[in-house]
Design brief:
Distance between the termini: 28 Å
Structural class: mainly alpha
Radius of gyration: 18 Å
Largest sheet: none
Strand content: under 5%
Number of strands: 0
Shape: flat
Number of helices: 7
Order of helices and strands: HHHHHHH
Length: 184
Amino acid sequence: MERAGLIGGGNGWRIAGWAIIGVALAVPLVANQFTQQVAWTLSDFALMGVLLGGAGLAMEILVRVTDDRAYRAAMALALGGCVALLVINGAVGIIGDERDDANLLFAAVLAVGLVGSTLTRFRAAGMRRVMTAMAVAQALVPVIAYNAIPGARETLLRPEVVAATLVFVSIWLASGWLFRKVAR
């Protein structure tokens, strides 16, 4: 039980992680009461709860499976990036607004991660390649959107689209770098 983080030093991190998830759900709940700008429905809270709870559960399992801190950090970065991509893209959209068809292309980035992780059985050497593939897919989304979706062209060169692309490419590459460190 000591190894699983149920007793001792791991408890503080676990409590902090679950508290962050609780706060992330409480903020829109409180904001719903005071402003029309935040209009979450019960299904919004349920979806966010499943998304954040699933990521938290995945980290709980990961902590029990490996003691390697670099592997844990790499997975935390990858999971956090996936959750952030889903939340940002679903809430406000990265290219245009959340209803813009170009944003559907980001599902391909997540699909690369899901399929690649499954095929490599989450082994560090394979995960390094998966993260690199996700970075490439992320960088290609605006290029594909520019060429395939004419309505998206005017929004693709906005600073926030470029910044979001660079941030997510950096997340995938940083995770890949940590996986590479573990694989050595």
